[in-house]
Each structure stands twice: as C-alpha cells, then as structure tokens.
Design goal:
InterPro entries: ADC_synthase, Anth_synth_I-like, Chorismate_C. The strands form three sheets. Strands 1, 2, 6, 7, 8, 9, 10, 11, 18, 21 and 22 form an eleven-stranded antiparallel beta sheet that branches. The protein has an eight-stranded antiparallel beta sheet with strand order 3-5-4-19-20-12-13-17. Strands 14-16-15 form a three-stranded antiparallel beta sheet. The chain has one domain: Anthranilate synthase (4-Layer Sandwich), CATH 3.60.120. The longest helix has 19 residues. The protein contains eleven helices and 22 strands. A hairpin with a 2-residue loop joins β19 and β20. The protein is of the alpha+beta class.
Length: 421
Amino acid sequence: MSRARQIAALAASEPGGALAWLDGGGGRGFVAVEPDLEVVADDLSALPAIEAFWRAEPTFVWIGWLTYEVGTAEMLGRPATAATLPGLVLRRYRATLELGARERIHGDARAGAELLARLAGSSWPEGQAWPLGPVEALMAAEDYRARVRRAQDFIAAGETYQINLTQPFVARWLPEWAGRPLAARAAAAYAAVQAATPASMGALLAVEAGRPCGRWVISNSPETLLAIELGAGEDGGDLARSWPIKGTRPRGADPAGDRAAREELTQSTKDLAEHVMIVDLVRNDLGRIAHPGSVRAPARPELVTLPTVHHLVSEVRCTLRRGWTLPEVVAAVFPGGSVTGAPKRRTAEHIERLEQRARGIYCGAIVALTPDGLRCSIPIRTGIADTAGLWLQSGGGIVIDSDPEAERHECWAKVRAFERG
C-alpha cells in the first residue's frame, strides 16, 4: 500500500491526537498525529512565544492555521470578527514524518517509531467511493452578480483597484456515507481529491484534538503564501519566496478547447494587468522584511496547468533582513494580496461589506514551522467538513472591466475538484 493510502487509512481510523497531513510543496510533505503543545488564540499575540519554542527546539515541527479574520484584524488594528474556528491554532508534534524522495522523522525518535508503526498497520478499506454529492451554490446567481457590480462601483469611485470577491458552496455527504465516522468521510474525500487533482499545498487537518474529531479541514490549494529556507538566500541569509496566483481559465473539454483556453489566458490584457497588480503588492509586502535591493520578480507570469484550471503564477523572492521575527513576517505578508486585492487594507474593508460572512481558514494560512524554515499556504480550494457536508468558498479578482457572469463561472471552475461524475 502506498504511503498516501497508509496516511489516509490512519486518518480514517479516528486516530485521536490531532492528525495533520500536508501534501506537496515541491514533492515535500509532512504527517503527524500526536501534539505535545497546542496554542489556541483569537489574535496573533501568541506568535512570539511560539517562535521562541520553535527556535529553541527546531527539530520539532509545528503545524496549524491562521484564519483570514485574524489577519485582517491585525492589519486593520481591531479585534477579529467572529468565525467558526479559532483565529490561531498551532500545534507542536512529538514526531513528524517528512514525506518525499527521502523520508525522515523530525522530533522524538521513539515517537517517530510509533508513528511509522501506526502507518504500517493501517488498512485502507476496499471499494472506497467518492463520499460527497454535487456541489451546490449557497448564493443565488443574481446575488453574486450584483455583488460584483457593487465591487465595481467601489473601483469606479477610486476606493480600490481590485477586489477578491468570494461566495459559499456546499457538498453534502451521500446517504450511504451518513452512518460512517466523520474521519472516514473526510479521509475518503481528501484521498480522492489528492489522487485526482493533486495540489502543491494540499492538506488534511483535524480541527479539534481528541477522538472523535467533529470537523476536518480539506484543502486542495495550489498557492504558497510564503516559504522561508534558512540560509538559502544571498550571502547566507534566509530566502523568502511567494507564488501569487491571479488569472484563471477552466480546462477545455478536449485538446483543442484546452489549447484555446491556455492561449486566451496568456494573451489576456485584463488578466495580465490583474496579475501584475498583485505581484507588485506582494513585492511591496516582501520589501518590508527584505534585505534592501534583494526583492526579485519575473517580467511575465508563468502558465501553470492543473487538472481543472489554468493559472498565471509568478515567483516573488527576497533575502530576509538579519534578525527577522515571525510576527514581523506575518504582519508583512498576511493575509495574502491575491485573496484581498489592492490596496490591501482598504480592499479588506470592502470585502467585509460585500461578503458579510467570515471566511475562516479559507484565504487564511496553513502554517508549518520546520527545522529548516517555514511554509504557509493560502487555503484556497479549501473547505471544512462536518457531519452535514463539506462547506466551501470560491472567488476571484474583480476589476473595473470584469464581466459578472464570467466571474461567477470562474468561482464554479475553482470548486470542480470537489465534484465527481
């Protein structure tokens, strides 16, 4: 049985602890079950203490999340608005298995041996099928189009240049899965998504510690908010990289249609302008924490093709200033510019007016503090699974010449990974 199947089987067995499975990231992933420290907070004030623990004992991996609201609250200088998840949850694990070409254990060797034994003893049931029904929009089409037009009114008034506007969806469990443990449902959904539409920053996370876990995060995100590699920058400094995504087309139904979709995206003046705007924002964000003159970005984005969509992606990089701190880094880049807009602060206020609902972990950050650095995804293509189903959100960047109906279809294209049939 493959390692991925072993991990999914362990997750499905309701393993207790607080399972975390981070997939991808250039072929590098992590899996852990038993935390020995957990920090839960409604703001970012715990980050210095977490950083102190991490730097003092870097062999132990920390995994968790920041919600979108805890980021905007810090940015706007006010308390976080209510969300269904705590704003900050970070857990230090007794042992973490690093996945990839060369597997290795981080943390306690004895706990690592126990984790490997649990994985080896896990059995994936035969005949596992897709557990979710069709994805349904929770917002009427005309309501979403009207919100796009309101966003364009803000742009026309000079309040902002681009607004990332999202809407909610749900996929409910199929009746034949209703009697199975939630862990088994979540693991089956994530294993199928991971196999069919692998994503560079995918994740399966237990929301609550203990057994049974009442909610699971299922993330199929392709977007990296920030990756820091200690000692890999200029003159032995620490390298920071971000890969903002902006510009999307759904895959074509046949090779000719797919080729046309790629060409349309790469030749779109609108999409390129939208992309450049966000790249400039990310360059500015990284510039706040960078060694002077070290920020780099490409002249044009790269086309990245995923199983359901084509994207425009750019790598923005810098060498961090000596003595950087985790709170400084988070304050500089979070929440991500691609999921807010430009300018970031003012646009975040307009998003709150337009959406009138908490995003939670969606568009926040899934975080790993590792022995050699840090990685944060932006959890797009991400939902919360509970006993009712998988609750999703999807969105896109609105600019002055956006077509409201085309924007609505783009939202649908981005949740297709959670549909079957």
